[in-house]
Specification:
Length: 167
Amino acid sequence: MEQAAHDRRRPKDVRDSVRCAGVLLALLVLVDWGSGRLAPWRFALWCALALLLFLVLYPARVSAGEDWLASRRLLRERRVRTDLLVSVRFLDGIAQRLVLKDALGGRVEIDPEVLVNNPQLWRRLDEGARRAADDGLLLCGATALRRLARRVDSETAQAVFRASGLD
C-alpha cells in the first residue's frame, strides 16, 4: 500500500508563524519597556495578542492518500473522498482557497499553493478527481481543476529548469 503524501513546506510555515508572533511580542514589549509603561497586565495582553497572531497564521496540515485528502487545523480534521468529489471551486478573496466537496458530505478548504508546491498531493487529488469525473459524480469543478493543473505543470516545469540551470 502506498504511503500518504504530506505538505513538505509545513514545518517551515509553522516556524514562520512562530517567528512572526515572536517578533510582534518582542516589539510590543520593547516599546512598552522603552516608554516605561511595561506592567505585568500589559505583558500578558501582549502575549495574548502574539498568541492570537500565531493561531491565525498557523498552517493546516494537508495530507492525501489513495482516494482521500485531509486538512487538519489545530482542533479539527476535515476529509474528503477524492474519488467521490461532486464539487471543486475556488474562493477568491484576500487569500485564495480551494473548496472540495464529496458525495458523503465531506468538505475541505485548502490553500491552492499547497498543491502547487507539493506535486505528490496534487497527483493524489487529480487521480481521485479524474475517477469522480469518469463516474459522472464531479458536476462542478472541471474548469477549476484544469486551471490548477496548468499552474502545477507550469511551476513544476520552472522548478525543473531552475534545477538544471536552464532558467
